[in-house]
Specification:
Oligomer: single chain
Helix content: 25-40%
Number of strands: 8
Shape: globular
Distance between the termini: 9 Å
Strand order of the largest sheet: 1-8-7-6-5-4-3-2
Amino acid sequence: MNCLSPSILAADFTRLGEQVAAIENCGAQYLHFDVMDGLFVPNISFGMPVLRSLRAHTNLMMDVHLMIQDPARYIAQVAACGADIITVHAEACTDLNHAVDLIKERDLLAGVALSPATPLSVLTYILHRIDMVLIMTVNPGQGGQPLIPYTLDKVRDLKKIIDRKGLKTDIEVDGGIHFENLETVLDAGANVIVAGSTIFHGDIEENTSRMLEMMK
């Protein structure tokens, strides 16, 4: 099943509740939170208070992407704020298996994110334990970047591995996804699409509905 996960990083925070309601009413399934710490990535975004506030006002799946160093420190707090999916970066974990354990212990979906140049081989011994792999199609830490073409080869290769192993792991992509390249991204094997600027810049209802229609 294809799912749309609009990233609030591109939203207007003075109208955040209204904009989240708009994408939910249009049929989006997930809501993507890009949490940045200024260490693992150069920028700082937002944290638990935003997640907690929105959790009380939406039924969307809370898709929390931790772009932070040593994310295991915060998994309990993020879970308590209402996350449904917690994704950690393989590059940021001192013990990736432990981080996944902490997510699973809370009966949440566990994701592992890979930056563009990180090889799929880091997933070899953990792929069977996780629910989603997030392939970053831009360098993490800043919205509005163009998609890096070679990352779609990673998506294709990952899809082959998942199919060969008989797994049901979702493949999420994040960065530079827009109407012109969406079909190519889906054809590569991705089924969870993160979109920020494409959704929140302009007519949100029209953008959300159009992207969902293309994803059918």
